[in-house]
Structure formats: C-alpha cells, structure tokens
Amino acid sequence: VTSTVMLLPEVIIPPVSVGVGYLRDLTLTCTVSSYPAMNEVTWYRNGGQVSVSSSAVVMKTISAVTSRLTMKSVTEIACGNYSCDSMDSLTAVVTVGSEAFLVPNTTSVVEGDTFAVECRAVGCPPLSITWQFRK
C-alpha cells in the first residue's frame, strides 16, 4: 500500500507593512511552500484576485515557490491587504504616501480682492487637510 501526503500551500514569508510614495513603483514578493509543488502563485488584494489588465501590474514567477507582484506608479487605489495563494494568509499591508497640491498652484490678486484656493490631497489612509495662514 502506498500513500501520498499532500501539504496545503503555506506562505513562508511573514506579513509586512509596506509604505510607498505616490506614483512610485512597488514590488511585493511571496514564497509559498506546498507538496506537490505549485505551478503558479495567485495574488489577492482585499480577498479578490489581482488582475493583470494593464502594463501597470506585472506578476512574475521567479521559481515554483516564489512570485513577485510589481505595480507601476501606484496611487491610493493600490492600498489594501495583499496575500498570495491563500486569501487567508496575509503577505503585505500596503499604504500609499500622500500628495497634496493647491489648485491653482500660483495666483495673483489685487489687495482687497477675494480669491479662492482649493487643496486636493490623495493617499491612503485618507488624508485630513488643515489650513493655516502666515503673514
């Protein structure tokens, strides 16, 4: 009688917290141990499978057990909990650095006139804006 023992996939890299600057590239690496060896590693973001629908997201299998997920020019949309091969095994928590800018960024006014300036901010977790006036 011959019996084969099957081992469920197990992520063998501990979870990490990753912060990335706005519009910067990000690469996550996942190593999975299983028997028999897996042919492909699947990536998940917040429990849903990561889609490679554009050149902005690249998945590359390094070996039978290691995979890299690279995201180009990340924005706040990339924030979330990432895992590989098992939706229950957390691989990385990704946050995106903030970027704040004034609209318009320069303006000229005549003393005594009123003007409006808008501040736009992106990033995650969501940002809070505070205004200060300095003479």
Describe this structure in words.
The chain has 135 residues and is mostly beta strands. The chain has no helices and ten strands. It has strands at residues 7-11, 16-20, 26-35, 43-45, 48-49, 57-61, 66-71, 80-84, 90-103, 118-124. The model has no long low-confidence stretch (mean pLDDT 76).
Q: What's a quick, concise take on this entry?
A:
With 135 residues, this protein is mainly beta. It contains no helices and 10 strands. Strands 2, 4, 5, 8, 9 and 10 form a 6-stranded mixed β-sheet that branches. Strands 1-3-7-6 form a 4-stranded antiparallel β-sheet, with no helix packed on it.
Layout of SSEs?
Layout (H helix, E strand, L loop, with lengths): L6 E5 L4 E5 L5 E10 L7 E3 L2 E2 L7 E5 L4 E6 L8 E5 L5 E14 L14 E7 L11
Parallel strand pairs: 2-9
Antiparallel strand pairs: 1-3, 3-7, 4-5, 4-8, 6-7, 8-9, 9-10
Query: How many strands, what sense, and barrel or not for the largest sheet?
Result: 6 strands, mixed
Which regions contain 5 or more consecutive residues with pLDDT less than 50? none
Share of β-strand residues: over 45%
N to C succession of SSEs: EEEEEEEEEE
- In round numbers, the mean pLDDT is 76
Please give the oligomerization state of what you see.
Answer: single chain
Q: Taking Cα atoms only, what radius of gyration do you get, to the nearest Å?
A: 22 Å
Q: Tell me roughly what share of residues is in helical segments.
A: under 10%
Based on DSSP secondary structure assignment, what is the total number of beta strands? 10
Estimated structural class? mainly beta
Instruction: Please report the number of helical segments.
Output: 0
So what's the overall shape? rod-shaped
Distance between the termini: 87 Å
